[in-house]
TrEMBL record:
Keywords: Lyase, Purine biosynthesis. GO terms for molecular function: (S)-2-(5-amino-1-(5-phospho-D-ribosyl)imidazole-4-carboxamido) succinate lyase (fumarate-forming) activity; N6-(1,2-dicarboxyethyl)AMP AMP-lyase (fumarate-forming) activity. NCBIfam families: PRK09285.1, purB. It comes from Mycoavidus cysteinexigens. Catalyzes two reactions in de novo purine nucleotide biosynthesis. Catalyzes the breakdown of 5-aminoimidazole- (N-succinylocarboxamide) ribotide (SAICAR or 2-[5-amino-1-(5-phospho-beta-D-ribosyl)imidazole-4-carboxamido]succinate) to 5-aminoimidazole-4-carboxamide ribotide (AICAR or 5-amino-1-(5-phospho-beta-D-ribosyl)imidazole-4-carboxamide) and fumarate, and of adenylosuccinate (ADS or N(6)-(1,2-dicarboxyethyl)-AMP) to adenosine monophosphate (AMP) and fumarate. Its EC number is 4.3.2.2. Pathway: Purine metabolism; IMP biosynthesis via de novo pathway; 5-amino-1-(5-phospho-D-ribosyl)imidazole-4-carboxamide from 5-amino-1-(5-phospho-D-ribosyl)imidazole-4-carboxylate: step 2/2; Purine metabolism; AMP biosynthesis via de novo pathway; AMP from IMP: step 2/2. It catalyses: (2S)-2-[5-amino-1-(5-phospho-beta-D-ribosyl)imidazole-4-carboxamido]succinate = 5-amino-1-(5-phospho-beta-D-ribosyl)imidazole-4-carboxamide + fumarate; N(6)-(1,2-dicarboxyethyl)-AMP = fumarate + AMP. PANTHER family: ADENYLOSUCCINATE LYASE. This is Adenylosuccinate lyase. Pfam families: ASL_C, Lyase_1. Gene3D superfamilies: Fumarase/aspartase (C-terminal domain), Fumarase/aspartase (Central domain), Fumarase/aspartase (N-terminal domain). The keyword Transmembrane helix does not apply.
């Protein structure tokens, strides 16, 4: 199916839009509009209705003979060529019907007028279906398309950039800060590798969620279907439509609605990835504040309206803010959608219309984070200076070697020497020189520096994928 793009690029529209997703940030959310706008919802409903009709025509039912190749091609073209004007016409019909799915059905009947074979079979459009048979499968295709075409590529681009940075800076030593205080050194690349590994797992979880669909009537039992054609194996017929024609996974047990458990799983998985990136944004913001990174400047840009020297980490701040908005919506969607009163209530319907809003804020956040990463320039002088001023972090290594060789009270001795104190190389070396440990162990400790006390950080960073 061709991806019809529905744009909102008119300057006046963007200035008067209620949501910044369709206003200030309209250009950055354009890719999602193809999948998650109301017009896209209509297009996917049309696709479901047409493939249900095509399947009926191929089922060997006497009242609806198999369509000719010409009629099949005509119906498939309605999907391929579905336009903003077609969506507007459906909206006009809905103003009369006050029912959005019925408006799609009437638009299809209107569209096949003059096609004798199809017009004769027009009452089989939406045959035995409840609105949710159409809506849930449309939503499934929309989510699957948005995930594969927009969200996963954006997340994979972020992951690839993090891997690139991890490899590039695998050897750059860096002072760790547990509880905000100087701690055992690491490397800059290893800290970025940690995030890359977490994000890789999160991406796998998002990709692994099976998108489900159902087409089983008003309460999930094929009541209407069997009243008309009791001899047809409707569960297998529906499975074939869902899986072979629409590319979803069949859910055989539902009420009127597909219960949305897979949506909750997907939204939870996206929110988890977002939380990892929010953590990254805050850490990078802090590292910029410490001077570990400089930011590339761009001619003409202003950092502050009054302080001309400033280059603010606005991309990471923008990303953090949008991740918060996205997760607030995603978590509401995940909590609300699987809950329905008895066989059906409408509270899910209005909430589902906000999927694009949740994912739009996520997409903005990914874009901002990626832009921020592209501006980073490592400041090795600042990183190295921080390490040179924190010889006390070697206390961990010294007391651990002391433990090995049975020196009494090693932790307590190093605590007295280093805790809350500014330690110098000379003071530490004087202490090491007095220790009753083998000469080779003493030589090893005397050769250590904060910059070299990094364990396997280089290897771990270099191997992250």
């Amino acid at each position: 199916m061709a991806d019809t793009t529905f744009t909102s690029s008119d300057p006046i529209h963007t200035l008067t839009a209620l949501s910044p997703l369709d206003g200030r940030y309209a250009a950055k959310t354009e890719a999602l509009r193809t999948w998650l706008s109301e017009a896209a919802f209509m297009r996917h409903r049309v696709k479901v209705e047409i493939h249900w009709l095509l399947a009926l025509s191929a089922a060997g039912l006497s009242e609806i003979p198999r369509f000719s190749p010409q009629s099949e091609a005509f119906l498939l073209r309605l999907i391929e060529t579905f336009s903003a004007e077609d969506a507007l016409r459906i909206k006009q019909i809905e103003q009369v019907t006050n029912h959005d799915v019925k408006a799609v059905e009437y638009w299809l009947k209107e569209s096949v007028k003059g096609q004798v074979e199809l017009e004769r079979a027009s009452e089989f459009i939406h045959f035995a279906c409840t609105s949710e048979d159409i809506n849930n499968t449309a939503h499934g295709m929309m989510l699957k398309g948005a995930r594969e075409s927009v969200l996963l590529p954006a997340l994979k681009a972020l992951h690839a950039r993090l891997v690139e940075l991890a490899h590039a800076h695998a050897r750059q030593p860096m002072l760790s800060r547990t509880h905000g205080q100087p701690a055992s050194p690491t490397t800059l690349g290893k800290e970025i590798a940690n995030v890359a590994a977490r994000l890789s797992s999160a991406i796998e979880r998002i990709a692994a969620v099976q998108v489900l669909g159902k087409m089983n009537g008003a309460v999930g039992n094929y009541n209407a279907h069997l009243s008309a054609y009791p001899e047809l194996d409707w569960p297998e017929f529906s499975r074939a439509v869902i899986e072979q024609r629409l590319g979803l996974t069949f859910n055989p047990y539902t009420i009127q609605i597909e219960p949305h458990d897979y949506m909750a799983e997907l939204f939870d998985a996206i929110a988890r990835a977002n939380t990892i990136l929010l953590d990254l944004n805050r850490d990078l913001w802090g590292y910029i504040s410490l001077g570990y990174f400089k930011q590339k400047t761009k001619a003409g840009e202003v950092g502050s309206s009054t302080m001309p020297h400033k280059v603010n980490p606005i991309d990471f701040e923008n990303s953090e803010g949008n991740l918060g908005l996205a997760n607030a919506l995603l978590r509401h969607l995940a909590d609300k959608l699987p809950v329905s009163r008895w066989q059906r209530d409408l509270t899910d319907s209005t909430v589902l219309r906000n999927i694009g809003v949740a994912l739009g804020h996520a997409l903005l956040a990914y874009d901002a984070c990626l832009r921020g990463l592209a501006k980073l320039e490592v400041n090795p002088q600042r990183l190295n200076a921080d390490l040179d001023g924190c010889w006390e972090v070697l206390g961990e290594a010294v007391q651990t070697v002391m433990r090995r060789y049975g020196v009494p009270n090693p932790y307590e001795q190093l605590k007295d020497l280093t805790r809350g104190k500014s330690m110098t190389r000379e003071v530490l070396h004087t202490f090491i020189s007095t220790l009753p440990i083998p000469a080779d162990a003493k030589t090893y400790l005397l050769a250590l520096t904060p910059a070299s006390y990094i364990g396997k950080a280089i290897e771990l960073a270099a191997h992250v994928k």
